[in-house]
Amino acid sequence: MPKVLIITYYWPPAGGPGVQRILGFVRYLPMFGWEPVVVTVLKGDYSNEDPSLLQQVPEKVKVYKIPAREPFNLYRRLTGKKRDEKIPTHILAAEKNQSFRERLSRFIRLNFFIPDARIGWIPYLTKTGTQIVQKEIPDILISSSPPHSLQLATKKIARKTDIKWIADFRDPWTDFFHYQEKGRLCFARYLDRYFEKSILKSVDAAVTVSPSLSALFKKKVPTLKATVITNGFDPEEYNDLLIKKHPHFTLFYAGSMRKSQCPMTFFDALQALIKKGKTPFNIRIAGSIHPHIKQAIEERDLTESFTFLGYLEHRKVLQEMINAHLLLLLIPNTEQNEGILTGKLFEYMASGTPILGFGPEQGDAAAILKETKTGIMIDYDKDPTSLLEIAYDAVKVEQKQGKHHIPDAVLKYSRYETTRKLAELLEDIL
Fold first, then answer.
1. Residue 395, pLDDT score
2. Are 116 and 180 in a shared domain?
């Protein structure tokens, strides 16, 4: 059986869609005749953890863990945070009320940790990773980012061992929306673009999660062999879930809600529902939420209509999706956001609960929602009041309970099928 060595920073007990993507590949690759070996970080500094995902790691899979120097420990000291305090994903965003230390830390992060704050892993990963490759003798390497710094280390490993290499990009690199904000100096932008292009020129193939992201990379390096393999969902995780819809109109949102995802028209529409007497209703949020968005909720006297659940383990998130009447999807309201396909989109679709998305109406996520007839995407400046009224009134008409069934239209996005595409690419490269 041919062997593929997968390099990833995010691995259980880390939580989030990036972990689930790679974990899905590892679980299903043996079904297509490939033996996966995983190389990850020892004691990673994760913004979220989900120990329940450890149960999904196949027993026979070898997992090597390599130590790293984590700059976030310095960030904690500079900003007075506790040693074990989780660092939110929005620290790169510029804020009006940031302290001097926080502004200084952000400036240092943007301009001296290039391409990202995981650069302390590069020397350890390069040295030990090379030794692991020489020991395991895999047929192909796969490196999945972000963090994109691991791509730099994998490039060195591939050169030293003369092995085929596929780079998996879950997000853009230099076009990441936080990097478009003020605060990054010219030399930092130039160096990051240089690193990005050097990787795209060096890989035997690249994998991206959306057509627009693939086109973005190919525009930079036209000779790049790029394949789109979207994120997906595991059908088995839904097998014993039961539909237990809430008695009142309930919306659910999963994941971090950043400043660039603030849905002002949605909040205004909720106020309109209250004025029309369409109450009670509840918006349940599982994940971190930016202070700016909480402030917008408070200013509209909507706090009592929101339930902040914090970070939930993956299975509980799936149950929340199924129990809700409407799922909220927020594509970051930034430039070049057409190619953003969040991991939760596919689990949203598998839940069978209708989706209300805010983002580009001509983007990749909108196209998938339209293709599968699982929801609708509207621009951030459009009024969703009428859509919310329809969803609210539908709760009184039909209150589904019972066993959950995955819609047939979304089965093509199961992780079994996405791994099939990866296996086909591996065979082609080999």
1. 85
2. yes
